[in-house]
Every structure is written in structure tokens, then in C-alpha cells.
Amino acid sequence: MSDAASTAFVRTQEARSLPAPLTVRGAPAWLKENLFSTPMSGLLTLGSILLILWIVPDIVRYLFIDAVWSAPDGAACRAPGTGACWAYVARKFSFFMYGSYPRDEVWRVDLTLVLGAALVVWLLVPRIPRKALGSLLFFVVYPVVAFVLLRGVAGVLPVVETNLWGGVFVSLLVATVGIVVSLPLGIVLALGRRSKLPFVKFVCVVFIEFVRGVPLITVLFMANTMLPLFVPQQWTPDRLLRPLIGISLFAAAYMAETVRGGLQAMPKGQFEGAMALGLGYWQMMRLIILPQALTTVIPGIVNSFISLFKDTTLVAIVGIFDFLRAVDTARLDPVWAGPTISTTGYVFAAIFYWVFCFTMSRYSQMLERKLSAGRRR
Amino acid sequence: MAADALIKTTPVTNDIAVDLVGVNKWYGDFHVLRDVNLTVKRGEKIVICGPSGSGKSTTIRCINRLEEYQKGRIVVDGIELTNDLKRIDEIRRDVGMVFQHFNLFPHLTVLENLTLAPIWVRKTPQKDAEEIAMHYLKRVKIPEQANKYPGQLSGGQQQRVAIARSLCMAPKIMMFDEPTSALDPEMVKEVLDTMVQLAHDGMTMLCVTHEMGFARQVADRVVFMDRGEVVEINTPEAFFTNPQHERTRLFLGQILH
């Protein structure tokens, strides 16, 4: 036998593809990979399981098994050993939703919410076409429609003053206005802060640093007491409009810094590539820089939205009757007074805020995946 | 010829594409461009070479105002470069530029990269812009990549897309800033071939490159820069076989083994 015969190799038969062994597929492999990959990980898994066994049954018992689902008043909920009093939430539901909005007129709020939700879905679900028309309707037509519906116009719809507004719909209103105003305003401030024009830059820096330097509550107080001083008496902004302005400006300052982070991360070559093609500043920003910069900072933007959404509860400080305030007021009703009433109300509020924030978070993750697909390797 | 190039032709005549007169630039105290003079005729192909930091990239970046300069005069296609933004944009529309790192827009497809400027800057209808784009994609031999994103292409393909993108604006002058320096060796040729083809079509070209084969093949004149000044301008023939300045000889000795 020569040396060549022992080192050379020529395949004569194709190697067959065999089923994978159990160590790399199926449930045992998954368990080992995810839960028991190291002794430490195994300990943590066991610890977590014990923790869940210890906590979850009590929660389930309180929220579901021992809960009172329907009752005419608080008597059933006062019985010892009962859990959450969902009957109370059901009874107070319209108060939680609309505050003191006249009961005969709440269809207007419902209609506004349904229209708004439909438009938001139109804008946010990528598969639905004609986003331009959707944006026009949402950003231009909808605010007018919402104003007419919610507040009313003398002669057409009875006017409902804002001091009767309250509950979930006010929370959603404040959050929506805050989000819709703060993003574009934040972008403008971020661009302004990077501007070569000294005056523009100065104004933006002063605004951002001032607003970020004071607590939101201070901004709300200032908006409430100082805004009326800046305008003639007959133009005094509505008591709900003042915190809306305050919260929008506050959120915009944070948004500006988030967006600026995205702008800083853009490679210089993108600016130069755009400029060399003869694009003007605004074209370059709109077509090249912002689409990329904003995609990079989606997590930050959604983070701002989520904290803005929860910060809306602070408008209660300046007398706005938001959802949390409604929950807080409803629990004082003597008809329902009982040991579980307050907890039930707050749990309900927590679930409400969590559902909205978690939805935003999941949506942003979906958007990130979609926008990064097909791009950079 | 070298002497001709250094003598200043003051009036702007129609056959001059780019005229740099006594251009000086400082970064703080550092004098990066020192009295740069260069006149490029229509259809002329200029290769600018020199060691790194010699100011060659900076020089061509001054021509489309990606860099500012403090002293001197630059006239592009009869338009004098000033601080007037309108004028700068006017010049940028007529001067194509290809970068070392391509600078394609990663969030747009290849076709969108090519049609963007014609649509928004030249106001070309989308359909016409796409037709022009496909024409140039065929010329750089990658029409089948039109609907991919730049990140899905090889470096050589990306650079050819970048060349096509500039050509879609129908520029009168093309500038190349080390177009092959960031490429893997096996991809240099496909880009150079595209540039040679462009040169044969009569395009006015200014190329900053270390590809001496390319310089020999297409350049009308080779400009050698060192320490921010133009040291020697000559025909490729004379430049490579009989360099006049000592620094040129030193440089050529270092890069041609």
C-alpha cells in the first residue's frame, strides 16, 4: 500500500441524514438548554419554581376564586375571607371610564374613543395601506372631531365643560396629546440643539435643560398658575388645556434628548452622502437621517411614551380628574365601603396601566424587528 | 504640460470644469491645504495621489463644499463657490462623489438609493427616475440587485451602486475619494473597470487613489500632493518614469516596489 492510498479519500456513497438525538431536540434538550444548563442555573430554576408556588396560588385565590363577581352593594364584599370585589369595579365602571361626564352624553366619549382607536390601529399596523391618508385624518381631522364631540358646540351638541370630564378617557386624552405633540416637538428641539445657528441652538439648549431640570409636578403647577398670566384674560387657557401643554412640553424635552442620541449615532458618511447628492438640509433630515436615527432609538422613544403614560396620573395634582383619581374617589363611597375595596380599585388600576404599557412595549419590539429586517448585516 | 497647469488661467472659460486658485485651509492652527492651485479641463481625468494626510481628500472635498476653506477661490463649471447655500447645492447637483465607505443609505433599497436624489433634487417623475436608475445599474452590471438592501451586497457591488447613484444625477464632474481602499482585494477590479469605462465615455474625473495602474491607464495628469501642497503635476508617462521632485521620487519608491 502506498502513502497516497492511506491519506487520500474519495466518497463512494452519500452520507445519510439521520434524525437528531434527544440531547439536541425535544423537551429534554430544551429543559437542559434553558433551565438546567449549569448547576447555578438549575438552583435558580428550582428557587423560582418554589417562589411561584408560594405566591401565585394566593394571588389566584384573591383575584379569582375568592373574588366577589356580582353583588348589589358592598355587603357581600365585607364578608370575611372574600377576595377582590369585582362587583364594585363593575358597578363603578362608567365612573372610572367617564368621571362625571353626563351619562346621557357618554356616547360621544365612546364614539371618540372608537374613532381614535380605529385610526391608531390604521397607523400602527404595517399591513394596512394608505398611511398618508390615515395620518391626515388622525393628526388634522381627528383633533377637531374629538374636540367637537367631547366638548360640544353650542347649538349642535350640548357643551360639556371640562370640569366634568374624568376617568380613563381623560387619562387617554392626556397621554395621546402628550405623545402626539412631544415626538415632533422633540425632534425639532433635537435638530435645533445640533444647529449651527447660535440663536436656535441657544434657545433649544435653554428650553431642554430648564425643563429637564425641574420636576413634572413643578411644570404642572407652573402651567396651571403661570400660563394664565401670559395671555389676556379672555384667552385664559382651559383648566384641562394647561396641564396638557405642561405635560407635552415636559415630554418633548426628554424626547429631544432621546432623538439627539439617535442623531449622534449616525455615521458622518450618511450626512456627506446625502449632501454630495445635492439634498438640502430638510430633505436630508427627512429622507436619510431621521428615518435611520429614529429607528435606532425606538426603545428610548417607547420608554418615554411609557413613562409619559404613567406620568399622566400626576395631572390629578392640578385638579384634573384622571383615571387614578376616579379610582381613588370611588373607594370612599359608603355603600361599598369594605376592607377589600381600596385594594380592588388599585389592582384594577394597575392592570389597566400595565396592559397599555405592555402593549406599547411589545409593539415597539415588533416594529424594531420589522424595521431592521433586510438592512445592515 | 506641468508648467501649463500651474499657470493661472484667470477668466472662466467654458472648457474649464474645475478651477482651484490659491486654496488654503486650516484646522485650528494646522495648515492643511497650502496654496493649492489646480485647473481641470472638461473631459480631463486627474488622479491625485500622495501619502496619507497630504490633503488630497480634503482638496476634492472642498470642491463640493463638504469641507470649508478659509482662503482662495474655487470655480466649478463656471459657478464660483461661496457661502451661499443655493449655490453650494447647485454645484453639488453637478458634481458626483464616490466615497471610500460608499455611504449608501442602508434603510433604502438599491433602486431607492438611486432614485432618491433625482426625484427630490431634480424633481424627476418617479417612473423616469426608475428607468434612469435601471439604465445605470445595467451599466455597472448589477441590475438584478435593484430591490435588495445595500447591506445584502458585497463591498464591490456596493461601490458600483454608489457610482451608479452619482451617475443618476447626470453629473458633469465625478470625484472619487479612495474608492477602492475599503474593498477586499478581489473586488477592486470590478470597481476600477467601472471607472475605466466611465473615463472612456468622456466624463471629467478627479480621483484620489493609490491605484497606480489605473492612473497609468486613464489619467491625463497625475497630481502629487504632500504636506498640504501640490508638489508635482505631470502626465502619467512622465510622472512614473521621470518624476521631477525629490519627494515624488521618494513616494513612488515607497509604493512601487
Tell me what the structure shows:
The complex is a heterodimer of chains A (377) and B (257). By secondary structure, chain A is mainly α. Chain A has 16 helices and no strands. Chain A has a domain at 175-375: MetI-like fold (Orthogonal Bundle), CATH 1.10.3720.10. In chain A, α8 (168-193) packs antiparallel against α9 and α14 packs antiparallel against α16 (341-372). The radius of gyration of chain A is 28 Å and the shape is flat. Chain B has 257 residues and is α/β, with parallel strands linked by helices. In chain B, the strands form two sheets. Chain B has a six-stranded mixed beta sheet with strand order 6-7-8-3-9-10, sandwiched between helices. A four-stranded antiparallel beta sheet of chain B has the order 2-1-4-5, with helices on one face. At the A-B interface, α12 and α13 of A face α3, β6 and α4 of B.
Largest sheet of chain B: 6 strands, mixed
Radius of gyration of chain B using CA atoms only:
18 Å
Portion in beta strands of chain A: under 5%
Main sheet of chain A, how many strands, which sense, barrel?
none
Radius of gyration of chain A: 28 Å
The first-to-last residue Cα distance of chain A is 51 Å
Give the quaternary arrangement of the chains. Answer: heterodimer
Average pLDDT number of chain A: 90
Question: What fold name goes in the CATH topology slot of the domain at 175-375 in chain A?
Answer: MetI-like fold
Mean pLDDT of chain B: 91
Q: Work out the number of β strands of chain B.
A: 10
Low-confidence stretches of chain A: none
State the low-pLDDT regions of chain B, or none: 1-12
Number of helical segments with 4 or more residues of chain B: 10
Largest interface: A-B, 22 and 28 residues
Q: What is the helix content of chain A? A: 55-70%
In CATH, the homologous superfamily of the domain at 175-375 in chain A goes by the name: MetI-like
CATH architecture of the domain at 175-375 in chain A: Orthogonal Bundle
Give the total of beta strands of chain A: 0
Strand content of chain B: 15-25%
